Amino acid sequence: MIISLDIGGSAIKLGIARSQTDIVPMGRRPTPKDDFAAFAETIRSFIAETGETPSRLAFSIAGVVDPDTQRLTCANIPCIHNRSLASDLEAELGFPVLIANDADCFTIAEAELGAGRGHRIVFGAILGTGVGGGLVSDGRLVNASGGFAGEWGHGPILACEAGNPPVKIPALPCGCGQKGCVDTVGGARGLERLHKTLHDLDFPSEQIIAQWQRGEEKATSTLDVYTDLVASPLALTVNITGATIVPVGGGLSNVGPLLGELDKAVRGRTLRRFDRPLVVRSECRLEPGLIGAALLGLKAEAT
């Protein structure tokens, strides 16, 4: 039996997995952000409530692990940031621990149980608060030990002009320390930032999208620029990885017309031509982090 945990900035979610087809969510607790002892105790009490002894703990976390030092980068939970988290939790809790990036967990869930079934190479894209991604090849995560592969949201690659007619796009600063990353415009906060940059209007992403769907001029302009900016790096990612399906998760994936426009734009820019949808809504809508972490834990137990 594997216990999988999805660690977010506001909540820790727990699930029990006995097989690929038997993964059950078990509830959530608030995340202690600033006290590692409280963080470990929350997990310990969670495990105790199951009344069972797991063979392994598998964590989905919004962060990356340095392959050389094993230290975690997780800015939104200070008490685990810059720790060798796997070894620290193993010492505290007494179980083998597997740490995985949340976008990687999303992607393995989609590859095994979601929209990526039947595809050798699956690129999972997150368009949520920010932009993330993961890459699965032949059922295995690429660069599973760190969580870096698939992070198409970062790197100074954004076009300096976009839209029809083209408008100038400044190289906006990114939280990763670089400028001009897809993350600066691609997620919900990025869409809001882009609308502010183009029209000097502070609107939430939901309002911008609603106005776009009503055909309002400024929102339509913003979404035209957004699609142009995001489609090119995503098409390049497909070219580089050879992915034949791109399941999309995160809040913006719920906007069907936006995903349709993005799919059309991406397919028009890839070297291989697809006569079917390529960029699609994810299918694992219920706790993909828990599902992906559980799948990775079960694979680790089987090897």
UniProtKB/TrEMBL annotation:
Ordered alphabetically, the record's keywords are: ATP-binding, Carbohydrate metabolism, Kinase, Metal-binding, Nucleotide-binding, Transferase, Zinc
Matches recorded under InterPro entries: ATPase_NBD (IPR043129), ROK (IPR000600)
- Pfam families referenced in this protein's UniProt entry, alphabetically: ROK
Q: How would you classify this enzyme at the top EC level? A: transferase
Keyword check for Nucleotide-binding: yes
This entry's Enzyme Commission designation comes to 2.7.1.59
Name any one GO molecular function: N-acetylglucosamine kinase activity
Q: Which domain of life is it from?
A: Bacteria
Q: Which reaction does it catalyse?
A: N-acetyl-D-glucosamine + ATP = N-acetyl-D-glucosamine 6-phosphate + ADP + H(+)
Protein's UniProt name: N-acetylglucosamine kinase
Which organism is the protein's source?
Rhizobium azibense
Upper lineage is: Bacteria, Pseudomonadati, Pseudomonadota, Alphaproteobacteria, Hyphomicrobiales
